[in-house]
What does this fold into?
Amino acid sequence: MSIMNTLSNLWDQTAFMNLEWGNYVMILVALVFLYLAIRHGFEPLLLVPIAFGMLLVNIYPDIMAEPYVDAMGIEHAGGLLHYFFILDEWSILPSLIFMGVGAMTDFGPLIANPKSFILGAAAQLGIYSAYFLAILLGFNGKAAAAISIIGGADGPTSIFLAGKLGQTELMGPIAVAAYSYMSLVPIIQPPIMKLLTTEKERKIKMEQLRPVSKLEKILFPIVITIVVCMILPTTAPLVGMLMLGNLFRESGVVKQLTDTASNALMYIVVILLGTSVGASTSAEAFLNVDTLKIVALGLIAFAVGTAGGVLFGKVMCKLSGGKINPLIGSAGVSAVPMAARVSQKVGAEADPTNFLLMHAMGPNVAGVIGTAVAAGTFMAVFGV
It folds into this structure.
């Protein structure tokens, strides 16, 4: 009899006896994400930890449990990924990601062609359009602002702003949508780019960028930090860390810090952030109407942002007498360097000898700064 009771107790403790249909749906979604990441290479550094965190929380929800005190007064620790997620809520992990991005990124193309700032700003159109659409769909101002940042295709900034605006209940769907669209840049952007440009425009070859001096590269992160953070001090955690990482890279005197920020630290943070973001997508939190609205708004914002960059690229093409390829405008979203690579790929399809990558990197890194500025603007508006 005791053996039967033991077996019965063991069976009752299995996930099969404790999961609902929604958990199985989310497990299936996690498996699809893993397939896309491993089989098709869609941003595996992001999707693998996110998908695995999603898998874990829907098999064992207590892995995200908060600490509590029981009726006997005994304190119980929270789940492992709960403590990872706190680092998201405190904006620690998103800021460290920005430092790593800065340490890996060459701002030379942006310095050589300052007009790229305009294209990076134009691609933020998706963020502001999504904000007003979210208001129309019934979200309050802070929730709408947090959702709209998905349009920048910038996962860390989306998490950062959701935390700062107190929208932690929406952080999971927002982050997953942002990272998913970052991963799907090669699928989403090309049809929009081809629809809005002619083959002749896609074949435009741009002049080689001028050489950028070491002094310019050192001064750039310092000047940008002072200017942007003086105007919008709330952007300091993101813009400041981005520029600090870039200063590590360009100063040439702290190679160890550059290597750590762009490699070991960056990948540790990606693991912690990815798994905790994935673990915020329990069936209860994710399978609802608001999540569907967020996913739809994110897609609209991303599409509008891409279109805004391309259309403004067409304007600049006309004003420059046909010297600017409008395709580089699509790189104004913040998915570095994936969006720039897509600009290169679409341009090369029209003319295999066309090389747009370095030209597209200008708007691409400008978009990172632009999205951080948009987040800072929303924080200033809401007095955060």
User: Anything to note?
Assistant: Residues 277 and 347 are 34 Å apart (CA to CA).
